[in-house]
Amino acid sequence: MLRRFVSHSFQATRITPEKLSLRFCLSIRVPTIAESISSGKVVGWTKKVGDTVSEDEVICQIESDKLNVDVRAPAPGVITKINFEEGSVVEVGTELSTMKEGEAASAAEVPAEPKPEAQAQSAVAAPKAAPVQAVSAPPAAAAPTALRGADPRVRSVRISSMRQRIADRLKASQNTCAMLTTFNEIDMTPLIELRNRYKDEFFKKNNVKLGFMSPFVKACAIALQDIPIVNASFGTDCIEYHDFVDISVAVSTPKGLVVPVLRDVQNSSFAQIEKQIADFGERARSNKLTLAEMTGGTFTISNGGVFGSWMGTPIVNPPQSAILGMHATKKKPWVVGNAVVPRDIMAVALTYDHRLIDGSDAVSFLVKVKNLIEDPARIVLDLA
């Protein structure tokens, strides 16, 4: 005999088209940028409400004080809502937008793009987005424009997160370091002759150009190992000595200066250094460097010579204790033996934290670099 069991606790619910569509709505949130970064600025939407997106397609960018992060669509579909305008500061995990999953979403199913007022109300209703939106709203930025509006030659441009970060770090360095700079001049003629003699063969073998950075990186690595206090930094109630050499190289980009790090250069060849610098430069200009690649470093090299600088005093990059500034090579009269001859001369500057590094150590370091560059065979033959 068959018995029928009926669950009296079951309640039927009618599924409306609106509720059904929610099953296919995806929330697009601010991704994790880095362990030390909790927020960023929306700097560009590549899509608007109603636009179709493919899986992993970039829909906007989030700018932090160190790098930009692409926000990508998690699946194919259509953008249904955008919660923040460009320039808004958003926290990691905040919902940026929503999308309807499915490649064939019809235009009728996508709501019209809300007006700015509606977007503001929606942001206020969200518990996390509300305070962020309030902080990021930049009405004050319009004031200078209004005051100077009579002069069309004056433009007010919102400062980027990266530029603000650069400003903060440089001022912090100035406030905390007892910076002092020592100078010297290097006869580049032997290195230039070596480069001219082997550059074609070097390129044919390694598929990268032989520049001046790799010899300077290697010379600095040797000098840093010989004079380890220049490679050290302040810790908490101690001095931290590094038994490795990680050199940060300053790379200029349209958005500002970045300093990716060459790791363990004491073990790297000229070709390895040149390849990594070329790769850093290319990816820095296309905003593809990772935060890990720009973190750390025990010493920095900045080459203002590529822009024609004859002399300058670089600023220490905390928590590092020293930075070497390279400059343009100039033809100058130079005493060799008892004769005055034309030579290719580069001025170099070492800025250091005088709280940690004595002047004698700084000068000894710079003279060591000078001697190695003026006799580059000693680097190649490991006779330093």
Any overview of this molecule?
With 384 residues, this protein is of the alpha+beta class. It folds into 2 domains: 123 residues, RNA polymerase II/Efflux pump adaptor protein, barrel-sandwich hybrid domain (OB fold (Dihydrolipoamide Acetyltransferase, E2P), Beta Barrel), CATH 2.40.50; 217 residues, Chloramphenicol acetyltransferase-like domain (Chloramphenicol Acetyltransferase, 2-Layer Sandwich). It contains 10 helices and 18 strands. The strands form 5 sheets. Strands 9-18-17-16-12-15 form a 6-stranded mixed sheet. A 4-stranded antiparallel sheet has the order 1-8-6-3, with no helix packed on it. The N terminus is likely disordered. Its EC number is 2.3.1.-. One of its GO terms (molecular function) is dihydrolipoyllysine-residue succinyltransferase activity. It is found in: Mitochondrion. Belongs to the 2-oxoacid dehydrogenase family.
Essential attributes:
Chloramphenicol Acetyltransferase, 10 helices, 18 strands, alpha+beta, six-stranded mixed beta sheet, elongated, 384 residues, 30% helix
Low-confidence segments, given as residue ranges, are: 1-13, 17-22, 104-108, 114-147
Structural class: alpha+beta
SSE succession:
HEEEEEEEEHHHHEHHEEEEEEHEEEHH
Quick one: overall form? elongated
Placed side by side, the strands forming the largest sheet appear as 9-18-17-16-12-15
Q: What's the N-to-C terminus distance?
A: 98 Å
SS elements, strand count: 18
- Overall CATH architecture of the largest domain: 2-Layer Sandwich
Question: Helicity level, as a percent range?
Answer: 25-40%
- Computed over alpha carbons, the radius of gyration is 29 Å
- The averaged pLDDT comes out at 83
CATH class of the largest domain: Alpha Beta
What name is given to the CATH topology of the largest domain?
Answer: Chloramphenicol Acetyltransferase
Report strand %: 25-35%
Number of domains: 2
Largest sheet: 6 strands, mixed
CATH superfamily of the largest domain, by name, is: Chloramphenicol acetyltransferase-like domain
Oligomer: single chain
Number of helices: 10
